[in-house]
Amino acid sequence: MTGAGPTTALAQNGVQISLGATGTVTDSMIIGNNYTGSANASAAGVLVFGGGGSVCGIGKISPLVKNASIKFDTLLSNDVGVALFNVDSTCSKSPRTPTRDTVCYNVIRNYHGYSHGEPSADANVAGFLTGKGKLIGDQAGVSDSGNADVICYNSISGGGYAARPVGLTAASPSARLGRARGRDNLDGHRLQPSDLPLLVADIHCQPRLACPQPADAQRQIAFRNFGRAP
User: Fold this and answer.
1) Which residues pair with 190 in a beta bridge?
2) 129: Cβ–Cβ under 8 A, 6 or more apart, which residues?
3) pLDDT tens, residue by residue, 164-206
4) Distance CA 152, CA 206 (A)
5) pTM for the model
6) Contact in structure between 77 and 99 (CB atoms under 8 Å)
7) 3-state class (DSSP) for residue 46
8) Staple partner for 122: which of 111, 112, 171, 176, CB 3.0–4.6 Å?
9) Which H or E run includes 142?
10) Which pLDDT does position 186 carry in this prediction?
11) What is the span of the domain harbouring residue 101?
C-alpha cells in the first residue's frame, strides 16, 4: 500500500482502525504517508483512533478501539509508523478502560528528518501542538495513548526517528516509542543515535503483560534477520 508521499494536501493514513472497530494488520507493506503542510497534523502508516467524543471534534459517540493487532508489517517513510490514539472524554489523556492494542514484530523506517536541526523538504513540521501553543514536527516509529497496550520487538530506524542533537534548540521531532499519556505501558526510553537500528525488546511491556511470541519460531528468526539494516 503506497501513499502519495510528501504532500501538503492532506495528512493521509495507510490503514485506519477507528471508533469502536477492531482488526488485524499483518504481513503488509505500507509506504509514503508523509504530510509536509502547515496544519496541525501528521500522517501514519497505521492509525488506531478512538475516544474523545465531541471534545475531539468527532461527534458524541466515539468508542475506543480495543484489541487491535499490528504485527509483522513493513512500514517505510511514514511520519508515524503506527499511531495508537485512544483517549478519554477530555481528549487529553489515556482512557481508564484497558484497550490492549498490540504493535509487535514490525520493521519501521523513516529517513525524512532534520539535518543539523533544519527540516528536510519531506519532513513533518507541524504535527504536534506544544503546551505553549507552538506547532512542531511529529515523527515517531510508534506513538501510543492507551491503557495496557503492548509494544514489542519492533525494528525502528532512520534519521526521521533519530533523537535531536544535544544542544539543539530548534523545534524538531524526537524519536520515541510512544507519547506516554496516563496509564500506558511505555517506560519512557528515548532512542539515541547509537540505538539505530534498534530491535525493541519486551522491556517495553508492563511487568504483568507478556509480549506475545510468534507461534512459528522460524518466522521470528526471519523477522530478526530482516529487521537488521544492511
Assistant:
1) 176
2) 40, 135
3) 554 433 333 333 333 322 222 233 333 333 333 333 332 333 3
4) 11
5) 0.75
6) no
7) strand
8) 112
9) strand 140-145
10) 30
11) 2-226
Number of domains into which the chain is organized: 1
Q: How far apart are CA 90 and CA 215, in angstroms?
A: 39
CA dist., res. 204 & res. 153, Å (int)? 9
What pLDDT does residue 200 have?
32
Confidence of residue 121 (pLDDT cuts 50, 70, 90): confident
Eight-class DSSP state of 76:
E
pLDDT at 187: 31
Under 8 Å between Cβ of 45 and 6: no
3-state SS of 151-204 is: EECCEEECHHHCCCCCCCCCCCCCCECCCCCCCCCCCCCECCHHHCCEECCHHH
Q: What is the mean pLDDT of residues 71-88?
A: 94
Q: Do you know the residue count of the chain? A: 230
The confidence band for 64, taking pLDDT boundaries of 50, 70 and 90, is: very high
Task: Tell me what the mean pLDDT of segment 10-21 comes to.
Answer: 95
Residues 2-27 as b/e (b if ≥16 CB within 10 A, e otherwise) read ebeebbeeebbbbbbbbbeebeebee
Beta strand 44-51 with 13-18: parallel, antiparallel or unpaired? Answer: parallel
What pLDDT is stored for residue 193 in this prediction?
A: 35
Q: Pairing state of beta strands 114-115 and 118-119?
A: antiparallel
- φ, ψ for residue 65 (rounded to 5)? -100, 120
